[in-house]
Design brief:
- The chain is mainly alpha-helical and 239 residues long.
- The chain folds into 2 domains: 124 residues, Helix Hairpins; 106 residues, no CATH class.
- The chain is built from 9 helices and no strands.
- The longest helix has 34 residues.
């Protein structure tokens, strides 16, 4: 009983956290811009031979901007809850929070410049290095894009909770995206079959647990598969 309550509390904690992410995406125009830029940058990174350290810097800088925007939103809502009248201290608090977002954004621009400038000046050579030389990189991009797509679709459909129900099934989307990535990397029928079988079992478990409907898992599977295929095909096109 105790383990069950602990498991439920952990799931609830994740739900609350993801609901906060979804709220900022729905209510904050700047957050939509941040997500859009993140998607564009991640897709652009497919065409360059980024090292692991460079990829870490890219992910960290983007995450820092998103986190700063979330803290800015939290501060603004807290101040609005306390007072609806003009107050110099409230203005200072909001300005400082907004300044933090600005610094994080400028930091990401500088990091992006340092990472991509030399590569962009020699674009013809950089395109000779295929993303298939770094299959871990392309898989990471697939996972990130699938997660962002799930967040966006869940926000638009406004059904269920982030980890329990809703259109589409995020677990199923990730499972099928990974199965598709394995298929592209291994290029073996047996391996591909086993990968997709595991993805189907993930979808089946979501239905059995009454967390998602059949069509929600189908939508998740299609979303994950199509995004992964798109990423790999783009990378192969520019070999």
């Amino acid at each position: 009983m105790k383990n069950k309550k602990t498991r439920q509390s952990v799931i609830k904690a994740f739900n609350v956290a993801i609901e906060g992410i979804l709220y900022t995406f729905k209510s904050e125009r700047n957050m939509k811009i941040h997500y859009f830029v993140a998607v564009v940058v991640f897709i652009a990174s497919l065409f360059f031979d980024l090292s692991r350290i460079e990829m870490m810097m890219l992910v960290f800088s983007i995450s820092l901007v998103v986190i700063s925007e979330m803290f800015n939103t939290a501060i603004e809502k807290t101040i609005d809850m306390v007072t609806d009248e003009y107050n110099v201290l409230a203005k200072i608090a909001k300005d400082v929070a907004a300044g933090g977002v600005l610094i994080a954004s400028l930091n990401s621009v500088v990091i992006g410049y340092l990472l991509f400038y030399d590569k962009l000046t020699n674009l013809s050579n950089s395109l000779l290095y295929t993303i298939r030389q770094s299959q871990i990189h392309v898989t990471l991009i697939c996972i990130v894009l699938v997660l962002i797509a799930v967040v966006v679709v869940k926000t638009l459909t406004a059904t269920g909770t982030p980890l329990q129900g809703g259109m589409p099934s995020g677990h199923t989307a990730l499972a099928f995206a990974m199965a598709t990535a394995i298929t592209f990397m291994m290029e073996k029928v047996v391996t591909s079959t086993l990968a997709y079988l595991m993805a189907v079992l993930v979808a089946q478990s979501r239905i059995e647990g009454k967390i998602h409907t059949f069509w929600e898992t189908v939508a998740g599977g299609l979303l994950g598969t199509l995004i992964c295929i798109l990423v790999f095909q783009i990378s192969r096109f520019y070999i």
